[in-house]
UniProtKB/TrEMBL annotation, chains A, B:
SMART domains: Transket_pyr. Residues 11-186 form the Transketolase-like pyrimidine-binding domain. Keywords: Oxidoreductase, Thiamine pyrophosphate. One of its GO terms (molecular function) is oxidoreductase activity. Its cofactor is thiamine diphosphate. It comes from the Bacteria. The lineage of its organism: Bacteria, Bacillati, Actinomycetota, Actinomycetes, Propionibacteriales. It holds the Pfam family Transketolase_C. The keyword Plastid does not apply. This is Alpha-ketoacid dehydrogenase subunit beta. It comes from Nocardioides antri.
From TrEMBL, chains C, D:
Keywords: Oxidoreductase, Pyruvate, Thiamine pyrophosphate. Its cofactor is thiamine diphosphate. GO terms for molecular function: magnesium ion binding; oxidoreductase activity, acting on the aldehyde or oxo group of donors, disulfide as acceptor. Residues 59-334 form the Dehydrogenase E1 component domain. The keyword Oxidoreductase applies. The gene is pdhA. It comes from Nocardioides antri. It comes from the Bacteria. This is Pyruvate dehydrogenase (Acetyl-transferring) E1 component subunit alpha. NCBIfam families: PDH_E1_alph_x.
Amino acid sequence: MVSTSSTGQKVTLAKGLNLGLRKAMEADDKVLLMGEDVGKLGGVFRITDGLQKDFGEDRVIDSPLAESGIVGTAVGMAMRGYRPVVEIQFDGFVYPAYDQIVCQVAKIHFRSKGRVKMPMVIRIPFGGGIGAVEHHSESPEAQFAHTPGLKVVACSNPVDGYWMIQQAIAHDDPVIFLEPKRQYHADKAELDETATPAPLFTSKVVRPGSDATLLAYGPTVKTCMKAAEAAAGEGRSLEVIDLRTLSPLDMGPVLDSVRRTGRAVVVHEAHVNLGMGAELASRITEECFYSLEAPVLRVGGFDTPYPASRIEEEWLPDLDRVLDAVDRSLEF
Amino acid sequence: MVSTSSTGQKVTLAKGLNLGLRKAMEADDKVLLMGEDVGKLGGVFRITDGLQKDFGEDRVIDSPLAESGIVGTAVGMAMRGYRPVVEIQFDGFVYPAYDQIVCQVAKIHFRSKGRVKMPMVIRIPFGGGIGAVEHHSESPEAQFAHTPGLKVVACSNPVDGYWMIQQAIAHDDPVIFLEPKRQYHADKAELDETATPAPLFTSKVVRPGSDATLLAYGPTVKTCMKAAEAAAGEGRSLEVIDLRTLSPLDMGPVLDSVRRTGRAVVVHEAHVNLGMGAELASRITEECFYSLEAPVLRVGGFDTPYPASRIEEEWLPDLDRVLDAVDRSLEF
Amino acid sequence: MSDGAVQPEFGPDLAEVFGPAHADGGPELIQLLTPEGERVHHPEFDLDFSAEELQGLYRDMVLVRRLDVEATALQRHGELGIWAQLLGQEAAQIGAGRALRSQDFVFPTYREHGVAWCRGLDPLKLLGLFRGVDHGDWNPSDYNFNLYTIVIGAQTLHATGYAMGMQRDGVVGTGDPDRDAAVLAHFGDGASSQGDVNEAFIFAASYNAPVVFFCQNNQWAISEPIERQSRIPLYQRALGFGFPGLRVDGNDVLATYAVTRAALQRARDGQGPTFVEAYTYRMGAHTTTDDPTRYRLTADVEHWKLKDPIARLEVYLKRNGLGDDDFFADLTAEADELGHTLREGCKAMPDPEPLEIFDRVYAETPPELAAQRDGFADYLASFEGAH
Amino acid sequence: MSDGAVQPEFGPDLAEVFGPAHADGGPELIQLLTPEGERVHHPEFDLDFSAEELQGLYRDMVLVRRLDVEATALQRHGELGIWAQLLGQEAAQIGAGRALRSQDFVFPTYREHGVAWCRGLDPLKLLGLFRGVDHGDWNPSDYNFNLYTIVIGAQTLHATGYAMGMQRDGVVGTGDPDRDAAVLAHFGDGASSQGDVNEAFIFAASYNAPVVFFCQNNQWAISEPIERQSRIPLYQRALGFGFPGLRVDGNDVLATYAVTRAALQRARDGQGPTFVEAYTYRMGAHTTTDDPTRYRLTADVEHWKLKDPIARLEVYLKRNGLGDDDFFADLTAEADELGHTLREGCKAMPDPEPLEIFDRVYAETPPELAAQRDGFADYLASFEGAH
Ligand SMILES: Cc1ncc(C[n+]2csc(CCOP(=O)(O)OP(=O)(O)O)c2C)c(N)n1
Ligand SMILES: Cc1ncc(C[n+]2csc(CCOP(=O)(O)OP(=O)(O)O)c2C)c(N)n1
Ligand SMILES: [Mg+2]
Ligand SMILES: [Mg+2]
């Protein structure tokens, strides 16, 4: 079991997560991985590639095909002192485990007056754009963020993937860990394993700007960066914030930014209706009522089920729809 | 099987629903009821009292103790041409059926290009204030309203209970039907069975006013009516809207009102974070940006799990917290 | 219990596979003490009990019945919001509870007051949940007894996972009796229909986890009779998942003890899960808010009264001179004392402090929740002057 | 298949209850045609097949294999996003599909292309979902064949509910062969672990619903072998729920047909559910995106090649003079023609019109969604001039 610690290697998000999981397992032998096909196969996205070989079947556990069973047994293992990291194969398959997540995982710390900790990470590859069939492109984050007792984070790039997964595993509260599956093998970034990462529950300005603020997380960070780039070509300066944490929200950087720009557009793949954009818009408006030049606008998946993949790119928020919202905001 | 059709009787919400279910079953023999203890017992709240006796065990079906099984078999019955009305015993027990609801009930019409209808009603007694133990006082509406393909309504009084349940059953789309359990046996209202009810998916101004708008549904309608009454004593005129429909929202009356009053407070028992208030605040702000004198404020359950019942009344939004928000809005 | 339609005209003959089913427990019912108080013998599960042990089991049953009666009365007097009665299930719970070793871990439902008693929990602690002052105010690891779980069946998966943790801790099948441990997972007949419970069977079988699934078949899930959940005897469910199932007379504390003990030992030894169906009867209502006259016959209840778990052991003790008048008198006094303690203790239980709720949601409270807390504190404080 | 640890030291002896388990299907495997193409007899399920019937079954299998091969190729050429192959499972699907009567209703998973074929569905319609142009573009009631369901196991509950609907419609157990109907519910070995599937067993047993649970145990759930899901033969799962389970050689189209036919008839007659385990093997990858070399041995695949469902019937037909050269040549031509149609048809499938999605979410589109649609239409139109 050799730790592949090196600095400066270029990694994909999939590799960053894989390395992060490995680090976490090396650091604490209470860390267990569990899920469908996470063993020999390394998961359908290969995020757990090689881990069963190196850490054994007792720590990288192929489970029967039952999500409630996976999360429910992970609860028991956490009660016994383990730190289970559960992989849900695709976003759309988290729902059979929904009851265990919202009634048990989320509530046990509270129910027990803090006596029983629930240090569990539930990894969910989320979002669309991979040309998949139904149920493989969902964005369930709002439902979890609405549930007290859960923390919800989303990574957007290889370096964050590497650090955030380790931070989530080390954290004593249950964390819903969202991974933009479209990004798994898309881009590479330089990983410096000796760096000091930002704390887990913080948002980051990833591109400064002054005319309007784009709020994104997971897969839409890239969309917004591209939009900002395109807007810059037309002389518009857009600030982009990678929220990273969805529950709790880290409103500090968001409010600072909107107070400066006076305009905000929230971009996510989840349905607009009752999506994260609704909460962000409400809070921003409450806190920056007199700084806002326009209402906070929301760009997201339409309020329809995820469509057949041949039209998914029309359904998903893209650069043009983001810029259209920016225009509407600026012209308001 | 005698229809107790009469005009002018005073009924509770429980009785209104019971009569409405009876009417719906008389009107269409494809209507079936299904759930735990709905037969001889008449349900733990007695909403189905007497129906099995009159309509038989084939139409009022006591089910095995499994919510996914109940909703999943109801899907099959709907495909076969029935109109199942499912009772979930308590809000907190809807989650084992969550997968069937969001991935099947909500999506089958879309998946089948409209060829397969899903005329199902899922009745959920919801909300707190009855001194119950954990999981018996939840407000899960935002999660369902976020899901395209579902319609979500909440009744607040006996007369609406009577009409809305019949309308929901007659409707061809799946309806999540929320019943404020705290109101079941609380107040009586005169029921005129010959009246013409308002359409199902409409909101209603239940008290006109001019200083601020209170938006409520289900159990908080009563709270807001009392708050408006109390405010009137202090010379403040509050308009109260009973939303009745949560998905779709009927924004017409809401926007009209807020354009007049310039102020809105949304009141629900669900957690504030990503609750219905977030969506309402976002839409109101977007539509009435220049009419708003203050940001839309939200009063709801705190972002903690529902507490032990001896302190539930402190956790739930009450008259004082509503008036406090009104004050904050007016003073903004 | 079983249904005529179960006979297939092909495939294995179910009656042959399982033996005939009987409404009264059937021949498969493992019994050591009859309802009439006769000691009977069993080829596999016989055990010798000392006078002390028998008195101990009797005492436990009498005291938990008193606990139950008091709690029911406290609910009637408005001191509890609701109470889930164990009346009639004392033998099933005490038999199972006494079969545990301290290193074993228990996952109860909301009705296992008797098992809690055996784990040494102050019974007053059981009342908090039903009074509405907490969700259970004990540390599970202090008693190896989890908090009550209300969502039907959810805890069977936790139990299985906990047992998988024990396997990883190396406390299964080592041969060291003080080290080897097992999990006892409680659930009801109604719960057997939940997906979670069946998934727990699958996981436990798949990993050969050291867990005993202990089902109190009290014949009812609120108003629904066991026939709605299963048309064959419930213990046979386990066989289809590949591990043994046994039906024990749940009103016979000796048999329940013996069978649970053997099943737990099998689990500790690394031989995997067992399903124990304790065949019993819910003599009371489902909870204090239930009205069983709407759905069941008094005659049935009367029938089961003859099988009372306490009465049969009392007859046995008395007939065999295993308890003198002092023993019974002392026990009555002890029960009265317990009742008194419960009544006084319950009424003295303070309401929780509202602001606490904010501190316990997370191990690390996020700033936004802390702000919500502070806002509420200010709000509450704003009334102080006013009143 | 089964695990040493299953022997309890008490309780019913599982080996006795169920008989011994064997890796290769075991003695309980119902077979009418051996891998070598020998016709064997079975005491309960024997059937006579005419030459025409045998040729028909053979033809079906050959054509659906071609369908599968073509679709796999179309995926490789980028015409489909993904494809779930049925290679090796032709006999299980054709045997089951041909056992249906028109009034029966089928709930498939995502792999039942052979059953769809038997229901008369234009195979091109199966490609839409995998191409990404729709979620299945047929009306289930036109074929009594539901849309594919992707969430594992969910459809078994729908099937049970549909069967309960049939009971209420009075089309079960009337004795009229053209009226009595049943439901065929498909699922895989992996699916047997889902709560939903086990709840379906419970509901079907409880209401004695006319449903046949048809499990294609192809030994794998993606990378996980059947042993992870069950340590005893899967068909035995049903016994614990109180209805019969049977294991049939799923690579033997004759046996699968005979067993499914009997099970469906039993359901139509009002005798309730049956579990049929079609013991087969997934010869291909899980889907075209899977790489089975990461988790299984080529030797295993080679072993199963000897049991090929088509080859054995071909041997039998040829050996018994039941198909002349023309028959085989015509069939090859027909398969080529099918391949051609599929290739051309697939490429010609139009992409959906984005705006349609808004109209199909509800039976009655709410105004707010109509507004969203209109806004998007305007937005799209705004580009028209621009480009
Ligand atoms: C998931 C879920 N659904 C419904 C309920 C409501 N409920 C509480 S107890 C009960 C019946 C349980 O019956 P059983 O499992 O036989 O246990 P018993 O109460 O008889 O001990 C029901 C339906 C619940 N607590 N959880
Ligand atoms: C609820 C759910 N979880 C996970 C998946 C992902 N998934 C698709 S197929 C599959 C394996 C299914 O195995 P099995 O039931 O044996 O059927 P087979 O594919 O072998 O025909 C998995 C895990 C899913 N579709 N649904
Ligand atoms: Mg019970
Ligand atoms: Mg399989």
